Amino acid sequence: MKKAEKRSCAVRAASTVAEPVAAAKATSRPSVVQVLRERGLIQDVTNDTLEAVASKEALSVYCGFDPTAESLHLGNLLGIIVLSWFQRCGHQPVALLGGATGRVGDPSGRSLERPILSEEEIERNVAGIRRILEKLLTSADPTGPKPLLLNNLDWFGGMSFLGFLRDVGKYARVGTMLSRDAVKSRMEADGEGISFTEFTYQLLQGYDFVHLHRTHGVRVQVGGSDQFGNIVGGVDLMRKVPGATTTQQCFGLTFPLLTKSDGTKMGKSASGAVWLAADKLSPFKFYQYLLTSIPDSDVIKFLKMLTFLDLGEIARLEAAMQAPDYKPNLAQQVLAAEVTRFVHGEEGLQQALKTTQALAPGARTQLDADTLEAIAGEAPSASLAVEQVVECPLADVMVAAGLQPSKGAARRMIKGGGVAVNNAKVSDEMHKLTAADLIEGRLLLLAAGKKNKMLVRVQQS
Ligand SMILES: Nc1ncnc2c1ncn2[C@@H]1O[C@H](COP(=O)(O)OP(=O)(O)OP(=O)(O)O)[C@@H](O)[C@H]1O
Ligand SMILES: N[C@@H](Cc1ccc(O)cc1)C(=O)O
C-alpha cells in the first residue's frame, strides 16, 4: 500500500461523522489529491492549492447526476469512486440528484438537443439513481463521514423565472457563457444550434454550487472532464453572486472519462450501457463485461481507477502480467471481482461467479435453484409441461425444448457424449428424465455441445 493510502485509512478511522470541521482543521489529513493523482483520477483542478487545503481541512465535496435514465452506468461510477476517496480521507461526500437540471438537459458533450422527459420518467429515474447512490456511498466507507443526498429540485422548484433572472442571471456574462465548449461546439456545427433552455444549463449547475456552498459549506465540485466548463462556471458565479462568497476558496476537480473500445465516452444514453442497477444488467453480465471487454493494455488503468485495491497489489499484478507463467485474464478477473463486489455486494459477486462457472463451456458444476434462476436471464429458456418432461426420453425433451431439430439428431448427440442434464453428462441415448432431475421441481438445465445451453421451466399441471 502506498503511504498516502495507508494514512488515509488511519485518518478515516479517527474521523467521525460528528467531528466538526473546525476541529478537523487542526489535524493533518491524508492528501486525497495525491491519492487521486496516483490512481489516474485527475484530469484538471481549478486551483492547485486544493491539495494543500484538502490536507489541512475537512471539506464538503459534491458530484451531480442528472436523472436521464433509471440507472447510473459504469462511467458514472467514477464520480462515486472519487467521492468515496474524499470520504475515505475524512471529507464529506455530497451526491446531488439533478431533479431540476434533468428537466433542462446538459448540452456538454452532446451534438444534439436532449429530448424532454416526462415528469413521471424523471421521477422514476430520480428514484432509481437515488437507490444506487445511497447503497454505494454508504457501503463504500461505512465509517467515514456520512454521505448527503440532495435534489436540486428542492431549491429550483420554488424559484420563479424572475427570481432566477435577478438572483442568478444578472451575475453571468453572455460572452463567457457563449465561450463554453458545450455551447461553442453547438453554435459552430451545422445544425440547429442550441436552445435557450440548454444554453442556460450552465447557470443552473453554477448556482447549485453557490447554493450548496451557502447551505452545506460545500467547497469542491467533482465531475467527469466533460463537466469542466460547468464547474468553472460555478466557481466564477461564487465570486460574483452577492453573499455567496465567504473568505473560503472553492474548487473544481475533474476526472478523465471512461471510454469504450471505440474511444467514445461510456454514457447512459449510448446504446449498450453498462448499467449499475441489477434489474437492467444482471451482476453476471456486469461481471462478464469487465472480464471480457477490457484489453490487457487497459486493465491496469481500470484497476487503479475503478477499484480500491492498494497500488502495491496492482503493481504486483502488472509485473505478473509480464511473467511467462502469467495465467491469461487474471488481471481482468481481479478487476471484475472487485468492481462487481463494490456495485452488487458479495452476494451479487458470488452469484456472478457461480453463473459464470455453470455456463462455462463443458461445465460440470453442481447446480442449485439460485444458480439456475440466475442463469434464467442469461441462457435461452423454454417452457414445457411436466408431462412433456418427466418419464420422457431425453431426446424427445431436447426436441420439444428446441435444442435439437430431430429425435435422431438428439440421440446421436447423446451417444456421442455431447449432452448434459444439470451439468452431468448423459450418454445413454434411451435415457429418460425423472422427477428427481427437476431442481426444486421446476427447473432443468440441458446442454447440447459445450456452449449450447437451455434452461427448461417445467410447468406442473
Ligand atoms: N464515461 C464516463 N467516464 C467518467 N465519468 C463519466 C462518464 N459518463 C458520465 N460521467 C460523469 O458522471 C456524472 C454524471 O453524468 P450524467 O449522469 O449527467 O451524464 P451521462 O451519464 O454522461 O449521461 P448522458 O449519456 O445522458 O450524457 C458527470 O460528472 C459525468 O462527467
Ligand atoms: N451536469 C452534470 C450533472 C450535474 C447536475 C447538477 C449539478 O449541480 C452538477 C452536475 C451531467 O450532466 O453530467
UniProtKB/TrEMBL annotation:
<keyword id="KW-0067">ATP-binding</keyword>
<dbReference type="InterPro" id="IPR024088">
    <property type="entry name" value="Tyr-tRNA-ligase_bac-type"/>
</dbReference>
<dbReference type="InterPro" id="IPR002307">
    <property type="entry name" value="Tyr-tRNA-ligase"/>
</dbReference>
<keyword id="KW-0436">Ligase</keyword>
<dbReference type="GO" id="GO:0005524">
    <property type="term" value="F:ATP binding"/>
</dbReference>
<keyword id="KW-0648">Protein biosynthesis</keyword>
<dbReference type="GO" id="GO:0048608">
    <property type="term" value="P:reproductive structure development"/>
</dbReference>
<dbReference type="GO" id="GO:0006437">
    <property type="term" value="P:tyrosyl-tRNA aminoacylation"/>
</dbReference>
<keyword id="KW-0030">Aminoacyl-tRNA synthetase</keyword>
<dbReference type="GO" id="GO:0009570">
    <property type="term" value="C:chloroplast stroma"/>
</dbReference>
<dbReference type="GO" id="GO:0004831">
    <property type="term" value="F:tyrosine-tRNA ligase activity"/>
</dbReference>
<keyword id="KW-0547">Nucleotide-binding</keyword>
<dbReference type="InterPro" id="IPR036986">
    <property type="entry name" value="S4_RNA-bd_sf"/>
</dbReference>
<dbReference type="GO" id="GO:0009791">
    <property type="term" value="P:post-embryonic development"/>
</dbReference>
<keyword id="KW-0694">RNA-binding</keyword>
<dbReference type="InterPro" id="IPR002305">
    <property type="entry name" value="aa-tRNA-synth_Ic"/>
</dbReference>
<dbReference type="GO" id="GO:0003723">
    <property type="term" value="F:RNA binding"/>
</dbReference>
<dbReference type="InterPro" id="IPR014729">
    <property type="entry name" value="Rossmann-like_a/b/a_fold"/>
</dbReference>
<dbReference type="InterPro" id="IPR001412">
    <property type="entry name" value="aa-tRNA-synth_I_CS"/>
</dbReference>
<dbReference type="GO" id="GO:0005739">
    <property type="term" value="C:mitochondrion"/>
</dbReference>
<dbReference type="Pfam" id="PF22421">
    <property type="entry name" value="SYY_C-terminal"/>
</dbReference>
<dbReference type="InterPro" id="IPR024107">
    <property type="entry name" value="Tyr-tRNA-ligase_bac_1"/>
</dbReference>
<dbReference type="InterPro" id="IPR054608">
    <property type="entry name" value="SYY-like_C"/>
</dbReference>
<dbReference type="Pfam" id="PF00579">
    <property type="entry name" value="tRNA-synt_1b"/>
</dbReference>
<protein>
    <recommendedName>
        <fullName>Tyrosine--tRNA ligase</fullName>
        <ecNumber>6.1.1.1</ecNumber>
    </recommendedName>
</protein>
<dbReference type="InterPro" id="IPR002942">
    <property type="entry name" value="S4_RNA-bd"/>
</dbReference>
<feature type="domain" description="RNA-binding S4">
    <location>
        <begin position="392"/>
        <end position="450"/>
    </location>
</feature>
<dbReference type="GO" id="GO:0005829">
    <property type="term" value="C:cytosol"/>
</dbReference>
<comment type="similarity">
    <text>Belongs to the class-I aminoacyl-tRNA synthetase family.</text>
</comment>
